[in-house]
Amino acid sequence: xxxxxxxxxxxxxxxxxxxxxxxxxxxxxxxxxxxxxxxxxxxxxxxxxxxxxxxxxxxxxxxxxxxxxxxxxxxxxxxxxxxxxxxxxxxxxxxxxxxxxxxxxxxxxxxxxxxxxxxxxxxxxxxxxxxxxxxxxxxxxxxxxxxxxxxxxxxxxxxxxxxxxxxxxxxxxxxxxxxxxxxxxxxxxxxxxxxxxxxxxxxxxxxxxxxxxxxxxxxxxxxxxxxxxxxxxxxxxxxxxxxxxxxxxxxxxxxxxxxxxxxxxxxxxxxxxxxxxxxxxxxxxxxxxxxxxxxxxxxxxxxxxxxxxxxxxxxxxxxxxxxxxxxxxxxxxxxxxxxxxxxxxx
Length: 346
Known about the structure:
Elements: E1 10-20, E2 24-27, H1 28-32, H2 39-46, E3 50-53, H3 60-75, E4 84-88, H4 99-107, E5 113-117, H5 123-136, E6 142-150, H6 160-163, E7 168-179, E8 186-193, E9 201-202, E10 225-226, H7 228-250, E11 259-262, H8 267-277, H9 288-291, H10 298-308, E12 317-324, E13 328-335
Parallel strand pairs: 4-5, 4-6, 11-12
Antiparallel strand pairs: 1-7, 2-3, 6-7, 8-13, 9-10, 12-13
Helix pairs in contact: 3-4, 7-8
């Protein structure tokens, strides 16, 4: 990537979304054999009926790369035209090199800079904001933002409070330069972090605070620990607050949004937010019942499925809201403006 301001007026345009999920489906019935739970208990508290689980030979880069191929094929963009690849992930292949570097190699993005972004379930929104900034500054024309997660590798399968919630997936979006007069693009972002809640959703061991070489290291502590009650309170509050702040700044009403895609963490959180914000069911798309919480892949996975089910149309104004570990959150309003097969030079 050579980053030089080109002097041309351009807006960041959301031109394609795509996804890839593992083949294996884990139902609630299977979880009943692992922990003391039931399908009724899981569905009533989370809305989740099944989730996808990566195979033993699949890592975050595999899922993200497959999603990338899907996105680029839909946009008709040669991977060599990518300027930047951002992979949002809490489950990277390795601490280094970046999973994004592995993805670039896999898809043939030989001219792209790349890096990983770790912001938990808000990672995709954070990545979109950085992609939009790169494009609108004139430093890039095509930025691929991916979420790749294999949460099944960091779960304690004896902990009912967490193992029923998460699934594996790869998904993302392509942000490209569009003509300023013809592109609406990203209207705005609202993002933040409350680090005071960092210990509410955490993997205690495995990093530099308690590394595998530490005499006190316990492999059991290298799995997710969550204060479900406090995270629930945070999520139900921040979705409403962040959305309200952003829409007020944009002078938009919720009824002007064509599609609402919230992070797919828990149907009770989603339903609460929809009631508070006055979002009618027809304007929201949810798939938490089929995939569970796929963290940074959650929002683009839902958008890709909404498109495939005829719920996301060219020209739609989309509200996306992510929230999770950090405690971090992010909201975005963007016009979905696909350019099918028209991005690569002849």
